[in-house]
Amino acid sequence: MKKPCLFHYTFHMDFTQPIEIADHIYWVGMYLPNDPFQCHPYFIDNGNDSILIDPGSMLEYDAVVRKIEHISTIKNIRYIILHHQDPDLAASVPAMEKRIGREDLQVITHSRMVPLVKHYLITSSYYEIDKHDHTLAYGKKSLQFIPTPYCHSPGAFVTYDPHTKTLFSGDIFGGIEESWEFYAEDDYFEKAKQFHAEYMPSRDIFNYALKKIEALDLERIAPQHGSIIQKPQISSLIEKMKALECGLYIEKEYRHELLYTIEALRQKDQALESSLKALKEKEEFLFQKAKMADMGEMIGNIAHQWRQPLAINNTLLSILKEKSQMDMLNKEELMEKISEMENNLQYMSKTIDDFMRFYHPAKKKRIFNISEVISDALGIMRPILQKSGISLRFTPSDNTYIKGYMNEYIQVVISILTNAKDILIQRNIPNPAVTMSLTSRQGKVTLTISDNAGGIEEKHIQRIFDPYFTTKHKSMGTGLGLYLSKMIIEKNMGGILSVENRPEGAAFHITMEQYHEPHTH
């Protein structure tokens, strides 16, 4: 049979005969003069595995059967596709079943529609698309079923034939128009928009279906109603359909309610954005305040480390000055005292370098060994703890590599150690001690810092990481140390900082993802 050309005029076509719209795909409907609601069944001729799509009502039954018999035979139909459950599409199925007379005949539809179409007294088995991966293999060919829920029924779908690039679209792209044309022309949107405005539930739902459809490689669209749309019209038609107000959107009351809801959401969004900006400013303020507190702590620690070498140097200078005045200073003694003072100055310089190393923020993450950097950092903290009579035990461990900001990690360790020191002193604990241990398990490295200060009160342990929360006297801290430590470990480095009470005292755990030792070249 000769195929119609792209712009074949409707009045040149013989609608009493089947019309081939693609390779082995036929329109087998019935033209109803002056009826704006034309219905279009389609037939895929594939021998004993042929397919009838949306067979229609009993109004078209005789014409549909006659046209199929003209192409093939009605008994070759193996599948009947129902894109939805309405009678204009499905009412003739029981009569078709009897005429076909095959025990292996299957009705293809969505499981949501089976409870409805069964009321037509259909006797064939159902091929539910959502239970068959939305595909059908028939012979050497296949069809794809694409769900378009609520367009216009809950289980609605469209059928795509990748062989001919034809989309059988059910109600979508249908039209209600008395001046009907078999092939859509450029003004088809004007003829289709009323149908879609009234039958599609909302623009959001309709656009969800359209986005799926426009992703397909299409040569033509064959809807159940209206006109067949060919490739030159498809893209522009979809764009116009996307902007169409339909369903609830054409109700004034809903539009007003929707606009009110949108405005209310916009105002809430603005309020939330303002709140987030205030929180960000507050967080920045907390960091700045914590930096100042850290700087004060750092200066205090440097002063503590410098006090002894400064006192020694002052003593040496006094001795040199006195002996010089008494003309009792010889060259050997002068050089010895100068060398001792130089050693003290070098120690003081190293102290500054150590503090600068661990307090200077890192710019990028890198892999480092926790054992090594803690051993170095304890050069800062051990003298401070020893002065307070606190013993510190730490056993380094191999293969404890993590990725993060090394300096910030050490700041957290020093903050926790300082917190333990203050509590031990505040509670006047006999034989005060701090223990540090490393464990590796299931790809994680955990550093545990524990003390024997008796633990955290149960009413406080849930708030220990809150900003400004502290059980210390106001002269001993701001309450920001543990809060910022948690932010550094969890927000900046993707780890976990937690605390628990043990029989002897509190135990803080810093858990990070474990990394392999970096290769050096």
Produce a short descriptive summary.
By secondary structure, this protein is of the alpha+beta class. Helix content is 42%, strand content 18%.
Kindly report the average pLDDT value: 85
CATH topology name of the largest domain, in short, is: Metallo-beta-lactamase, Chain A
Largest sheet: 7 strands, mixed
Would you report the number of β strands?
20
The structure class reads alpha+beta
Q: Percent of residues in beta strands?
A: 15-25%
Give the end-to-end Cα distance, rounded to a whole number of Å: 75 Å
Query: CATH superfamily name of the largest domain?
Result: Ribonuclease Z/Hydroxyacylglutathione hydrolase-like
Write the topology of this structure:
Elements: E1 19-22, E2 25-27, E3 42-44, E4 50-53, H1 61-71, E5 77-81, H2 87-90, H3 93-100, E6 106-109, H4 114-117, E7 125-128, E8 135-138, E9 141-147, E10 157-161, E11 166-168, H5 188-199, H6 203-214, E12 220-222, E13 229-230, H7 231-242, H8 252-325, H9 331-359, E14 366-369, H10 370-387, E15 391-394, E16 401-404, H11 406-426, E17 433-441, E18 444-451, H12 458-461, H13 481-492, E19 496-501, E20 506-515
Parallel strand pairs: 4-5, 5-6, 6-7, 11-12, 15-17
Antiparallel strand pairs: 1-2, 2-3, 3-4, 8-9, 9-10, 10-11, 12-13, 14-16, 16-20, 17-18, 18-20, 19-20
Helix pairs in contact: 6-7, 8-9, 9-10, 10-11, 11-13
